[in-house]
Amino acid sequence: MTAPTLTKMIKIEVVVAGSDAPAVRELIQSVGATGFTSLSGVSGLGHNGYHQGRLLFNQQAALELLITVVPEDKVDALLAGLRPLLDASSGVMFVTETYVSRPDYFS
């Protein structure tokens, strides 16, 4: 149950190689999202083994986590763009319901 003063939105988190991050950022902006958070040097264990978070030679050698929150009416367009990108390269996407206190920040 949520407080009546909160507004339901959708949070999309994408972990991709640094070389794919610019395409994800452009896609997020193209659907009208008002912003995103980007964390580089992400580490973790997945299908392709362990990925260290430290940079080796450049920003593109590391994984990046991009997070955005959008109203439900923007989700389908964003997912339609992300699916082909993730089908063509390694990465993972998480989509969850979330609630925000200032919905005007996301519209």
From TrEMBL:
One of its GO terms (biological process) is regulation of nitrogen utilization. GO terms for molecular function: enzyme regulator activity. This is Nitrogen regulatory protein P-II. InterPro entries: N-reg_PII, N-reg_PII-like_a/b, N-reg_PII/ATP_PRibTrfase_C.
